[in-house]
Amino acid sequence: MYSRLSNDISPFTVMQLVQRASEFEAQGQRVVHFEVGEPDFQTAAPIVAAAHSALDAGRTKYTAAQGISELRQCIADFYKSQDIAIPVGRILVTSGASGGLVLLASLLLDAGDELLITDPGYPCNEVFAKLVGGLPKKVPVSAENRFQPTLADIQSAWGEKTKGVLLASPANPTGTMLDADELIAIQGFVAAQGGFFILDEIYQNLTRDHVTYTSGLSLCPDIFVLNSFSKYFGMTGWRLGWVVVPDAAVEALTKLAQNLFISPSTPAQYAAVAAFADDAMSIHSQRKETFETRAKILYEGLVALGFSIPVIPDGAFYLYVDISHTNMDSADFCWRLIEEYQVAVTPGYDFGDSDAGRYVRFAYTTSEEAILLGLERIDQALQDWGLKV
Ligand SMILES: Cc1ncc(COP(=O)(O)O)c(C=O)c1O
Predict the structure, then answer these.
(1) Which protein residues touch ligand 1 with a CB less than 6 Å away?
(2) Domains and CATH numbers, the chain
(3) Which end of the chain is more exposed for a tag (fewer CB within 10 A), N or C?
(4) Which of 230, 233, 346, 351 to mutate to test the pocket of ligand 1 (most atoms within 8 A of CB)?
(5) Tens digits of per-residue pLDDT, 176-199?
(6) Which one of 98, 320, 346 would you pick to mutate in the ligand 1 pocket, going by the greatest count of ligand atoms within 8 A of its CB?
(7) Where are the extended beta strands (E) located within 125-283?
């Protein structure tokens, strides 16, 4: 009775762990959460205040499908502050990056068209392609190349039906960025095939100081870029994001946005304008520092426990951790950790098939105190399981 697509989607393994975690919590036990892919902070107060004012002022009607001009201007200024000139007309506000992915898949893929995505990668990517009858094709990436595809990987995966690539920088679950030269080379190859290049930059700004570029738009101005208010701006539940598209795509994308979404959430858009003001920006940047401190504690703690983290991430709030020294499969490892020690971690299986049994994703979207407690519990687990190195 239901569609092939709905039957085809597998539920995330982590949802069973989350369910188990909430059962423990209902019994009054404390769970350490390393599985959550969203900031633990509340949305910054100036943004919340702006939402209240917007509602009081009656900002509750539809807006233009592209989003309100104030917000689009803020986004353009945000790029300008990174020395990237993007005309406002190329920016469309969306219902989260997820809404952006629906729009770009609808714009760029026809039934039977292939889209190259990475494995491991953000698990929903393949669903967006399938939604419009597209065929996601997974390109395995490994620690050897910092979990990002090389030009050669893309060249060899590219086939007759391939229409484009969707890559993320920094990526989920690995937090690594595409090397600037590789990005340019891949874009050159894709353009020569007449294909499209979508770069997911939803973790933009949650990056370390050593990174060589902030947005791929500074290197390749004509790519499609996805971004969001969810992560750096701490607005996951507001469901707001944006896309930057080449000039030629604006009209068609606007038509799709009008038909599929009418407009993004109006109060959320007015709130998001305040996300770019100095007071909110300084809160975001302090939070980024907090993530950085946590990353260090978690990284050092896990390495001291014998785990290997083959690639130090460039950003986001994840560590992709090799658990092979435990001789356990990642699903088994995660299940036993929650069941026996009330520590929730996401198995590699939720991000693809490539080496999935060997990796788990730790998100440091929890307090330092919780991270230390989690490390203590994992230490205990390894001792109890006879795996302490
Ligand atoms: C790489 C990546 N892209 C897109 C999304 C969707 O984000 P949102 O719809 O909240 O903007 C996520 C969410 O975790 C993600 O990790």
Answers:
(1) 37, 96-98, 122, 168, 172, 200, 202, 228, 230, 236, 241
(2) 4-42+280-384 (3.90.1150.10), 46-277 (3.40.640.10)
(3) N
(4) 230
(5) 999 999 999 999 999 999 999 999
(6) 98
(7) 135-140, 162-168, 196-200, 224-228, 241-244
